[in-house]
Amino acid sequence: MNFALEVRDKGGHSSLPTKENAIYRLANGLARLERYAFPVELNEVTQAFFERSAASESGQTAADMRAVLRKPPDAKAAARLSAIPAYNATLRTTCVATRLEGGHATMPCRSWPALW
User: Fold this and answer.
1) How many other C-beta atoms are found inside a 10 Å radius of the C-beta of residue 97?
2) Inside any domain, residue 101
C-alpha cells in the first residue's frame, strides 16, 4: 500500500519568509510518522512463527518470543524484539517514507558567500 502526502500553502518568496511553510509542515509530519509505532498485532501465521522460532533461539530472544505470545503481549519483550528489523516487521504493520519531492523553485541565497 502506498500513500502520497501533499502539503500546500499560498507560497511566497524566500527573501520574505512567513511562518507558514509547506515544506516544514511536511517535514514535521514525516517526523511524526517516524516516531509512530503501530501496535503489536499477531495473526495465526505470526504466532506460529514466534512459537517455532523460540524453540531454536536461546536466552532473552527466546523468552521475548514467548512473552509476545501472551494476551496481552509483553510490552518490554515486544520492544526488545522490535529493535531487530525482521522481528519488528513480523510483530506489526510498518510504514516508512521512501521518497520525497518538494518545492517548485530553487532560490540561490546571494548573501551566503559573505558568511564564509
Assistant:
1) 12
2) no
